[in-house]
Structure formats: C-alpha cells, structure tokens
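W.,

You were right to be curious about this one. When I first looked at the sequence I had no strong expectations either way, so I just let the prediction run and decided to look at it fresh. Below is the sequence, 536 residues in total, followed by the output.
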Amino acid sequence: MRQIGISQHTSLVRPFVEIMFQHNVLATSVADGPNPSWNEELCIPFRPPQDDYSATNLQMVKDILYLNIFDEYIADINQDERDHSLLIHQRIERRWLGSIQIPFSTIYANGRIDGTFRVDKPPMLLGYAKDISGTPQTEVGTDILLGDSEHTYLTMFLTIEPQLVPPESTVEKFQSIETDELLLAAENWQTDLEKKFPKRDYKSTVINFEAKSVFVMRYIRPLNPPQELLTEDNSSFNVAKSVARYVSLIPSVSDSVIFPGLCDIWSTSSQFLQMLQGDEEEHAVLLANYFLFLGKNTWLVIGSAIPEGPTAYVLTREQNDFYLWNARTGEHFNSHDNYCPLQSVGCLVNGDNIWGNIQPNDKPCQMSFNVSNSSYWKPFFHKGFSNPGLGSIQVERLTYLKPNMANIIKLQEKIEAELKKKIAEWRPRYITRWNRLCIQTFRKLLIQLEEMQGKGLQHEQFSELDQVAASYKLCGFPINLSYTEMKSIIDSVYATGVHEFASSDVEFALAVHVQPYPNNVLSVWIYVASLVRIRL
C-alpha cells in the first residue's frame, strides 16, 4: 500500500497501532512499510463502574477494547505552494486503516487472548493505492484503495493484570424436558470424551429460557430466512452470503451481559429475533437453520476460537469443500485456511445426531470432517442406541416484521446530526466546516456499498469524486455497523481519530445511510472524510 498525495507524491505507509479503552489511549512506535514488527508491551488502565470489582459487576461491563491501525503521514504545508524556496513547515497527520474490536467481556471470560487476528478494513480508502511493481501511477482522478481478497493480520497477546477471576460456571442440575435415560447417556458420552480430550469443547445438553436442560439437537431444524434475501436459485453461494450477512447484522452481546450471574442460556431462533441480541450460539444456530432451509449440508460446530474463546460456528459442505462460517461476523473460511479464527473443534451437531471429535488434531485445517468415519468421530446415537425421534423446540416457520421507513429516515438523520455535533465537540480549538458537495456524493456511494455488501466495487463507481479531488486532497473511508445504540456508533467513529486533524484549513464530509431489513435488523453505513484544499 502507498499513500497518494499532492502532485502524485507517493510513499509507503508508516503504520502504528493505537489502543483505546474507556477513552484511555496508548500507541506503539511508528514503523516503516507495509510489514511492520513492533514487539512492544503496552499497559492500559481499566476501571469498572463504581470501582466495583465483584464478579457480578464485571460481567456487566460493556466496554470495548479498540486496536486501531493508523498511518502516520507527514504533509508539507506552505503559505504559498507556488514558491517552494520558502521555509517549509510540516504537519503530522494520522490516517485510520482498520481496526480490531474485542469486548472486555471476552477478555474477562478467557483471562488471556493470544493469536493472530484479521483486521477489519473498510471496503475502500481515499488517498491510497496498492503498491504493485510495474503498474503506472494514476495521473488524474481520485486515488482509491478498494478492499480485496488480501487480508491484513495482527498478532498479539492480551491479558488482565492482576488476574480477575471470572465466576465459576454453575454446576447445579436443572430440571429437564428429556428422559432420565437420555440424560444419563448424554452425561456418559460427554464425560468419556472429556476424559480423553480435556481441552476440547463437547456439548450434549444446553439450558433454555425456562432454565431447563434441553438436548442440543432440538435447536436444529430448517427455518425460513426473510423472503427478501431469497432468489430463484436458493442453493447459490451468493444467497448463502446474503443470509450470513443478515445474521451478522443482529447485534452480538455476551450472555454474561444479558443474564449476569446465570449460566449460558440458549434462546430459540424466534426468541433471538424478538430480542435482536445474542451471543455466538444464537447467531450460529439461526444461520445453521437458514442454511438447512436453503438445502445445504450443514452442521453446528461447537469449539473454541480467537478472540471469543468457547464459541459456535457453522459448517457447510460445498461440493468437495467444507466451509466454516462465523455467524457473528458473516465471514466464511475454507476448512483448510490456516488463518481461520476457529482454533479447535469439539463436536458437530445437526438435527439427527451429535458427533464428538476423537481425531488426534482439533484444528480445522488438520482435520477430516467425514462424520461417517467412526475412527474420527464418536456419534451420540448409534446402532446400539438409536435416536428416539427427538422433536425440535424451534417454531415451524419464522415471521418477520416489515420495517417502518419513516422511523428509519428519522434514525438516519439523527445519527448524522449527532455525529456531526460530536466531531465539532471533539475539535474545540477549530471551526468544523462541512463540504456539502462531498456529502451528497458520499450518500450515493453508501447506497451502492450496501447493494454490493461492500464488495465488488469498481473505480468507475467513484467518478463523481473526481470533481472534488480536483480541488481537494481527500482522506476518508466508510464503516459498516449493526445498530445497537447511539453510543456504540459514536465510539466507533471516535476510535478512528478522524477528528484529530490539528488545522483550521480542513473541511469534513460525513454521510449516513441506514438500510433496514425485515424484523428491524439494520445495516448502518457511515462515510467520513477530511478534505484539504489544494493550493495551485
């Protein structure tokens, strides 16, 4: 990646990582080039609400740890750029390139997080271009780096010092809707597996909303996605990706925040859609049920991932390949992908059976997913103990509410007004000016970004920016969020540091687009940029 500046000046990025937590900020040193190595230790303070370090209070902390990657850009500034013999002053700018967000609840529950994480990058970056040897540089128009198949990763280790011991999971026995025979068999099956593979996650029963033990298979059955997401060919991979994105737009909240002090509660898919919030299990169950409706070979995966720790993914078979789906983010990975965040597989679940992983390896890229091989997978039901015909606890068909467009427009205007107000407040020393032409162009682009789900964009779609780029140096990006509350949107924009432009000669552009989906699931797009007039 290279920066594009005035007069087509180019330079490699100078990245650094900034950590923001509870509005405390720390940063690494600045590196040179697109392959940095910092090897630095940063300690950032943590303070719980009311200074209460009790387990009950810590479980309810909603704060998010932001790890933002910035590019440090040194810009020359002259009072009159026609005379370069004058004394040149320089201004240090910081440009947001991407981020990783980790809820405190995840760090607290796991104690430590160690691994290589994919950076969430915007689908396009104004002011940047990919550094490809031998490719001529653009001489006119707008320089835009579009998101592509090449991902950015960050390796790190996170922990809390001194250690905060999370509350132990409840071990009390719950009432159950299952027979004693089935419960005893489930206990023996799981205990036997855990003795042989104590570090793997196995699950045969879960706790439902009524605080009763339920066999996990009962959560799996084909369920209809919103009709708006379906096509004449529902088996296509594009439909699967659209359905996965819909599920990922439902806000993700840890059970420890929703049900503090209680065990891991599994809601049904209809309950999940009514609450419009849930953890990895609710997302994965809903996505698995949608995929079954689409006719896909599908399993629920119980395992462990980074950064979540114990989690649930979805496994599908596409011809001769297996894909692992992170239902919380909408991402999918080939099972052979070494960078898949799913680090360990304990068992697979569908509506007919549960299979425990008894292979020597539990990392997906080193495993076989052929559940018919009894040397690799131990089934719960088998010839000596057949499935008695367990029914599903899911409804037969999901119903969806239509969005209220008048309310959506009001929300869109409210988000845009609030963000503009906040950006002005974050720059108390300077007047914040807004570029109306650029804002109008951004609004059109956001609609296109939603239609393309942020992918497959072409440079021709940004031709309207050329008029702005002829007079301004642009630096900006779009971000896409699910809607939970205004605070989370404000925090996400604040974390990008877009407001930290220490100059009065800068203008800003900010546009918001809210795309509604059935059942009030919302996709929020925000395009924000800084503009500095080019002095000719």
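Here's what jumped out at me. The longest strand covers residues 89-103. And, maybe more interesting for your project: Residues 4-9, 79-83, 133-142 have pLDDT under 50 and may be disordered.

Coffee later to discuss?

I.
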